[in-house]
Amino acid sequence: MTGLELALAALVVFLASCLQGTIGFGLGMLAAPVISLLDPSLLPGSIVLLAAGLTVFGVLRDRTAVDFRGTGWALLGMVPGTVAGALLVSALPPQALALAVAGTVLLAVLLSVCGWQPRPRPAAVAAAGAASGLMGTATAIGGPPMALVWQGFSPARVRGTMSAFFLVGALVSLTALTAVGSIDREVLLFAATLLPAVLLGFVTSSVVNGRLNKALVRRVGLAASTAGAVLVLVQAL
């Protein structure tokens, strides 16, 4: 990866980290398509590593708003989904994973635009947890299912609950990806290089929270995710 490409990746990760720190998700949706364009072999490991660090800060900041009961149901569904996602990573070539990333993002955007809002009952939360575990491990984009099922919560509760869920999910995904040999030295080095961008993005989100129109931030994130997914589709096809 050239210096210019690395700078582009850092900029996107900064924006994605700020977005996730503001609305509870977005790191994978925004950054995964761009990284997939630059080097598909870095996915999903690099994003999962960065998400693990970002969610630690999110839990610490919004810990008083976390819905631990809902997190528990989501984690119950996440385990089988994560195993299925790890098997996909070991079986599919990088190009197929790139297509999976693009398709996942576009589907998530479509559902969000359509305004589908399931009630956060235990069965629905567990099902969303399973879908998130599969998508997060296979494509590094696990946010959309949980965002859909928890979208009726207050902003702080969404951020805190999703951070708690994604922290455990990231650790489980890292264990599964390591077991199938998808976390190598190159992935670790790339994630370490982008860690400062994650930290800066999170700090920025803490400054802008409560000052920006959340609906506008959400629309910007969905638009950027759509553009990135389209670029991935063009390259892969």
UniProtKB/TrEMBL annotation:
One of its GO terms (cellular component) is plasma membrane. It comes from the Bacteria. The chain crosses the membrane at residues 41-60, 72-91, 97-116, 123-142, 162-180, 187-204, 216-234. The keyword Cell membrane applies. Keywords: Cell membrane, Membrane, Transmembrane, Transmembrane helix, Transport. It is a multi-pass membrane protein. Pfam families: TauE. It is found in: Cell membrane. Belongs to the 4-toluene sulfonate uptake permease (TSUP) (TC 2.A.102) family. PANTHER family: MEMBRANE TRANSPORTER PROTEIN, TRANSMEMBRANE PROTEIN YFCA. This is Probable membrane transporter protein. It comes from Kocuria turfanensis.
